[in-house]
Each structure stands twice: as C-alpha cells, then as structure tokens.
Design brief:
seven-stranded mixed beta sheet, alpha/beta, Rossmann fold, binds S-adenosylmethionine
C-alpha cells in the first residue's frame, strides 16, 4: 500500500479526515522527504507505513486536540523535516505556521518541500528557540506553539512558552514518557506560568504510545526567560 492508502485506512479511527487536496500535498511530501534524505539526514523513518503513521498521522492528531481558527498563528519549535508544523500547515491552510529550527540545512529542505507541496502558509525561521524567544518580533506573538522530539518537557517549556500569547497553548507531542516528564516539569510550569489543561493519550496503529500534552499559558513570563542555552542545559528549571 502507498503512504496515502495507509493513511486513509487508519485516519478515520482517529477522527482525522484526509481529503483529495491534503492527499496530494502529503504524497509530494513523502516523495521529497525521501529524496532530500539522500542528501541530508532528515529522518530514519522512510517506509510507506512509517511515513503515513509515525509522521503524518501522528502530526494530524494534533488538529483534534486544538480548535485552530482562521488567521491564528502557530510556531513549530525544532521542526526538523517539518513535523508537526508542515503537516499542520497542509491540513489547515487558513492558519499561519512558523517553522523554526536551529539547523539551516534542514530548513532548506523544508522550504523546498513546502514549495513543491503548494503550501504557502508557512514562514521559515532559522534560529535557536531560546534566542528567538527573547525577540519582540516573536515573543508572545503566537496562539499555539508545538514541538515533537526536541527536548524533555521542563526544557521545552522554556523554549516554547515565551512565543505563546497569554491565553494561548503549547501542544507537546510526546511518547510513553509523557506522565513522567510532566512530573519533572512542575517547577518549570510554575516559573513560566504554564498550566496543564489536558493530556490526550492514544496509540498509533502498531501500538506505539503517544500523548499530546496541552499546556495553557496563564501569565506573562519573567523577562529573564528564556535563558541562554548554556544556562538552560546546566540548570534546567
Ligand atoms: N520535530 C521534528 C520531528 O519530530 O521529526 C524534528 C525532531 S529532531 C529529533 C529535533 C530538532 O530540533 C532538530 O532539527 C534540531 O535542530 C532542533 N532543535 C533542537 N534544539 C533546538 C533549539 N534550541 N532551537 C531550535 N531548534 C532546535
């Protein structure tokens, strides 16, 4: 079965709709992901089923955990090959998605893939999250932040919450360690004004455990956060 056939077979069980326009875009995405991966290391998951389920479906479920409204702004921190940000931009053409990563060559691939998919509601930003989060042009400008496979939750909160408006949300895509990471993130949540609103737990076909942690930003963040990389690494909140 092709990537799209696998995706269409499993998506309905997750309440995810794959229409023709999205199928076409994701088909191009899968093809270019493989092509670019021959030049630079984007992902180890390249088989049809893996791309369909571990990349596309995993990211599309995020759309079931939030109500995205036209004109809203999302920033995907540590987007890598565009997960989940580029998948969400393809599925929700009426939202504006910023794809941020510190690795320029990955962003070059993502820019090319987005262009060929015909996805224009994305902006590419080459920066470290903790540096961009101190800049007024990015700070508290977003309705949602997302991140998958970037850092443990207590560190991720310092990377992502500075981008989010008060009242907005951070959607953290996690695996089986989600509850443990939440336990370890209590100090970080209280320092950075985040509150866990809900946790959507599910399993991908095949059994991989997944969780989307929805964190609401309830107050402004003290201006000293995010700190510089070395401090975050040395003394995570
Ligand atoms: N989110 C993608 C996914 O799920 O496939 C990529 C995950 S990859 C393991 C982690 C990515 O986060 C890398 O592309 C890396 O460059 C980026 N990254 C790590 N720390 C970062 C930081 N502080 N600021 C921006 N990007 C960062």
């Amino acid at each position: 079965m092709s990537v799209i056939e696998v995706l269409k077979q499993h998506a309905p069980a997750y309440g995810v709709e794959i229409d023709d326009a999205l199928s076409q875009k994701l088909c191009v995405y899968a093809q270019l992901l493989r092509e670019w991966n021959e030049k630079i290391n984007l992902t180890a998951i390249l088989d049809d089923e893996g791309i369909a389920l571990k990349h596309f479906l995993d990211c599309l479920v995020v759309g079931k955990c939030a109500e995205f409204k036209a004109g809203q702004k999302i920033i995907d921190v540590g987007t890598g090959a565009g997960f989940p940000g580029l998948v969400l931009a393809a599925a929700f053409p009426e939202i504006n998605v910023t794809l941020l990563d510190s690795t320029g060559k990955k962003l070059k691939a993502v820019e090319d893939i987005a262009k060929n998919m015909g996805v224009s509601n994305v902006e590419i930003v080459h920066a470290r999250a903790e540096e961009a989060g101190q800049k007024p042009v990015f700070r508290e400008q977003y309705d949602f932040a997302t991140a998958r496979a970037v850092a443990e939750l207590r560190v991720l909160l310092e990377y992502t919450l500075p981008f989010v408006k008060v009242g907005g949300h951070f959607l953290s895509l996690k695996g089986a360690s989600a509850l443990e990471e939440i336990d370890g993130a209590k100090a970080s949540l209280s320092t950075l004004g985040g509150k866990i609103e809900r946790i959507n737990e599910f399993s991908l076909p095949g059994g991989d455990k997944r969780a989307i942690i929805c964190v609401k930003k309830i107050s402004h963040i003290p201006s000293r956060y995010p700190r510089v990389s070395a401090q975050i690494a040395k003394k995570p909140l």
